[in-house]
Predict the structure.
Amino acid sequence: MCGIVGYIGESQAAPILLEGLSKLEYRGYDSAGIAVYDGENIKVQKAVGRLKVLSEMTHDGATMQGVVGIGHTRWATHGAPSNTNAHPHYNQAETIVVVHNGIIENYMKLRKRLETKGYQFLSETDTEVVAHLLDYYYKGEPLEAITKIMHRVEGSYALGIIFKDHPEQVYAVRKDSPLIVGHGKDGNLIASDVPAVLKYTRNVYFILNEEIAVLTKETIGFYNVDGEEIQKECTTIDWDINAAEKGGYEHFMLKEMYEQPQTVRDTLNPRIKEGSIVIEELGMSDEEIQKISKIHIVACGSAYHVGVTAKYVFEGMARIPVEVDLASEFRYRNPILEKDALVIIISQSGETADSLAALREAKIRGVKTLGIVNVVGSSIAREADKVMYTWAGPEIAVATTKAYSAQLIATYLLAVKFAQVRGEVLEEEVTGILKDLQKLPEQIEMLLSHKEKIQRFANRYIAAKDVFFVGRGIDYAISMEGSLKLKEISYIHSEAYAAGELKHGTISLIEEGTLVAAVVTQEDLYKKTISNIVELRSRGAFVLAVTNTGNTEIQKAADYVIYIPQTNRYFTNSLAIIPLQLFSYYVSVGKGCDVDKPRNLAKSVTVE
Ligand code: M6R
């Protein structure tokens, strides 16, 4: 999604804006622009394509002199990627300039009204409406104009605004799109996400819905939608700044895959105390846990795949019925939620629009909600009744790896805890389960150390047209994630199938040499999946099997075998996914794709 940065202070604004925007590149974008007040006018420069183009055009910002500015990376929604549609957008007199993330849902209606009042629009964007509407309401007092448009505009927005008449201020407003304020030593900043300001400050304010921030070079004031001043608390960000940098790795995705052992430890260890699982943030008594009648897991993309895995784990271990929904479906399907149900929303960013809307839907229905979230202070983290953080640190690559792994761990912890409280596992079994959990980090390390083998294998499939991923039970859930990883970063068509379902249609797509990755980690299902592998090979498929150490039987059936270490049957996903992530990564590298920023994708999907 779009990225916003704003700066006001002692230093030249343009280089800071470009630097900040580069830290938001992971969000996905197709054009970029900056606006700087040069002492007389607000100057705007825009460029289609990578930020590099804008940097070259402005000599790294040197051609845009001034200490106040706003910048934007745009991910096209209304209107194609073009210079005209790129942000910032002016009002007609070029005295107000705006950058925007989100979607103004009633922009057509507003645009028509403004046109009848003589306003002329240059772009196809919904954002330009905001610039003209501000102009319409502006009578010399920016805060007043901003609060007025907040009553008129429907949809989601994070806005950065400069008024030429008030060049000693930058204005920021948000509703349903993320925006933070950084309080720096030689100036203040706004940004869509923390990495953009970390170079300048660790002191951050999270702007909440329908709040306005007014920044000068020394001060920051906050106001509500009625223009009344409000007080906010400053949060100190304690991430290591290197966590948001590549640190010598070729890509963020590779670095983040290598961070998985640590991520798993960080999510796990603080919640295992003296041999038992303690999830303080859950805030549920044993009685409440016993009463849970059903769990609804709601999420998007990879987080949804975590939910599919978690269904097997909760149902298998804790014997609690689970329904898993894509958030975009859940929010509109009028779900039946029992009063003792628990709704778990899983989200790395905590800002995914559909997941946030699903959470709100559940809350309206009075059901207890729990967010499993990575970004501290994000919307889902704030709005869920309870939040369990995955301590994965900032994830920059669009394709999730370490956050996914941390989410799996969070769900395992919950499932074991619930199973224990509900008497579905014996105390002595719990010791073994915890041992298996604590072994996962070093087992992941070991799998990562075999990257060359997987790279060699991946290089053979750079030209593949279609790849299928199959498995049964939990292995089907792993297949879904393996398939998504491959298609999103290598642009190779791929599908995941429940192995038993192939012969009901999909097997007709198998041709001589088609690659099928079969995940085979559930011992009681070995034989069943092996017979599917045999069916596939007899139709020409080349079968790569990912299975447990010791499953030698499979060597006769598959063409190529990758072994994962032994673990509890419910935790195999955490291991089997590693070779699949590496495979996708190396196919993408081999094809020369933009691994960290795949085309058409955004890290944080803050629109419906
Ligand atoms: O931030 P979220 O976890 O809510 O994001 C959900 C999906 O958009 C995300 O998992 C997406 O599918 C990833 N690109 C997959 O790698």
In short: The mean pLDDT is 93. The longest strand covers residues 3-9. The pocket of 5-amino-5-deoxy-1-O-phosphono-D-mannitol is lined by residues 300-303, 347-349, 352, 355, 398-400, 484, 488, 604-605 (CB under 6 Å).
